[in-house]
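Researcher: I'm comparing several assemblies side by side, and this is the next one on my list. It has 896 residues spread over four chains. Same procedure as the others: predict the full complex and return the structure.
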Amino acid sequence: MVRVLDKGIVELKNFMGGDLAVVAAARVSNGVSYEEASRGAEKDQKLINYLTKHKHGTPFEHSVFQFYIKAPIFIAREMMRHRVSSFNEISGRYVQYEPEFYIPEQFRIPAESNKQGSIFPSDEWKRQFDWLCRRDVEDICSDAYETYKDLLRRGVAKEMARMVLPLNLYTQYYWTVNARSLMNFLTLRCAEDAQWEIRQFAFVVRDIFKEKMPMTFNAWNDDD
Amino acid sequence: MVRVLDKGIVELKNFMGGDLAVVAAARVSNGVSYEEASRGAEKDQKLINYLTKHKHGTPFEHSVFQFYIKAPIFIAREMMRHRVSSFNEISGRYVQYEPEFYIPEQFRIPAESNKQGSIFPSDEWKRQFDWLCRRDVEDICSDAYETYKDLLRRGVAKEMARMVLPLNLYTQYYWTVNARSLMNFLTLRCAEDAQWEIRQFAFVVRDIFKEKMPMTFNAWNDDD
Amino acid sequence: MVRVLDKGIVELKNFMGGDLAVVAAARVSNGVSYEEASRGAEKDQKLINYLTKHKHGTPFEHSVFQFYIKAPIFIAREMMRHRVSSFNEISGRYVQYEPEFYIPEQFRIPAESNKQGSIFPSDEWKRQFDWLCRRDVEDICSDAYETYKDLLRRGVAKEMARMVLPLNLYTQYYWTVNARSLMNFLTLRCAEDAQWEIRQFAFVVRDIFKEKMPMTFNAWNDDD
Amino acid sequence: MVRVLDKGIVELKNFMGGDLAVVAAARVSNGVSYEEASRGAEKDQKLINYLTKHKHGTPFEHSVFQFYIKAPIFIAREMMRHRVSSFNEISGRYVQYEPEFYIPEQFRIPAESNKQGSIFPSDEWKRQFDWLCRRDVEDICSDAYETYKDLLRRGVAKEMARMVLPLNLYTQYYWTVNARSLMNFLTLRCAEDAQWEIRQFAFVVRDIFKEKMPMTFNAWNDDD
């Protein structure tokens, strides 16, 4: 289990396949069996590099990761746009949410070079700026959660009451994704123009990917 | 363009296919050409009923709808879980959101028969109850939007400031979906145990589906 | 490794998930952790039955099977129409095919009750009939393979020469598929109106599914 | 309707979307409406180029093509591996196939530079070589079709008898695919290392794509 942001989590729950499954899937096109698929680390790495470079994606689909993720909703929304994967999420229709909100340590100002991105300001007023912004965020989250509880206390259904909760509320879910789709996720979400918060999740996912499929990671990393 | 809830919209932007495309796709298995695919309304309807009843889904994939949708985020999140479809959405990283929030006319209490559902209470205190709840929702949305603007005014990046906005904020997006995936959506989201708000959107989508593909609608409706 | 037909194979190469992964994915909607997801065999079975009956398919997507399959091309073509799964196949562009053809033991006549199906005739002339048909199939396969080799010997590219080989040529491939998509496959391909040959493959896949996910198998089997 | 190879066909049956749909889907992220999405040909082209270059694929998913294709089975098998698309095909379980086989005009020898590819030999013996190969292919197709008819005449079910037919038998099907998936198809199947026969189909599909979505074609063509 790896902690991300102030209260987030990324944890690998299940995994199948690996670099050998990639190599075996590629070499079945030559009629080679799973058991004889590996030709040593060097040749296997070379093959995986070739597949990556030439966008031969299917051999990577036989390796699959299941993650448990705890993330703010505005980040979860970005992750759930990756359709070649499977999600099951906590439901605000069934359960009362805990008052767990993402409260940033630091606040970013818009990047000049980039329409939608943002950067950390380096000026001396930064500490004061962060303190003020954090207080604002904490206050509104606290107020929203009070309203949420008031509505529930009055008898409003959970599925309605939840609508007042802000987008930095933490949600949790399982995410199952094959290595091909995972690499696409990483390429997009580790990128410099991705939102800083989702990058923190993507970096942890990348580390797990690297550990489980070191050769495929190398190939992806060189190509990316 | 059809209005849904207080500020929502469903609008068909593009469409291709139709009942004839279903019939043609089914009858190509018998080597029949597109031009000769129809055998009259009665036989065509019977064929479509057969396909629906026996879960032969592929002939319905050649008909495609593109909708423009404006919906609260907590409803959009449910719609975007339907992965066999395409979405492009307004981005809170690029634009400053308008203060458009879903403010319910009436508030529902939990259904006794159903863990996650909800019903409209019929008691005399209802008017007062709705008035109080609505005031609470309006107040917190107003406060959240103030905090949002404060953060922006201080120079915080849009992608960060948006995290304080509540889940009833209106978002907008295109949704392209084929008739097979659409029927699956309608079966799940018109159902009685679906959330009332998404049902309102699903009902409008269903009407458009009925208009564009009347035979397929009949078959789905009888089978559902 | 299980033998199917005269020269076919089904073999499970990798697997992840299982009944517990189904139960955990379903109960995350209530905020229950993976470790606490099981509530004993009886309650878990009941939950899985409920999911199956109400077509809640996503919890089954976190369990994944990788099979190695050796099957005649006309059967492989049916399997490869299941798009929510991953395939890597031997390529007739790269390798010279071995003369491995499916030669049926028995031949079926059309079922009267069913347009596309077929049945085994029970009459006394059956032995003679099978003998004649088998000889015809063997002869043409032998001739086709001779032509294939002649073309190769003359220098024709493998990718062209293969076009003369018949549809009962054996091919081989990996097939990775999650439990949701697998159940859909089994429902369609174990059915009485499916072709007898693909049913033999589907029955073996079903046995493996039953062994790996006994509760999910029960639920699917009762619902199917 | 465009003729391909000796008896093949590519025909556009339905289409929706177009360059404007791409531009509208991209600009909805800025909150721009469909009606105001275009900013003139030059700016639209520039936007589409940007999307293509940065692999922003979703805006292309709202444009959809339905083709009717008639192709040899060994080519159809390659096309049907493109899973993000919809197929309905003539069924050899239902209908008796016509004796329509792909008989190449010219035969290719293996390319030296490329393991699986092939080239047209330029030597003077070419005419003789082609004549001999063509005769071989014609003969075996004729024999196979005779065996097919014999089996049917004896009473064997169509679904079994078809197994003796060769892979160059023509099949026919509808193929519905969005512009994003189509561009992926074209990149892979117009490429020099793709089989010559599928390239002929891909070139026709490309022409239709160019006609219907000229700006998107330009962007894809420059990037490819």
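Model: For your comparison table: The mean pLDDT of chain A is 95.
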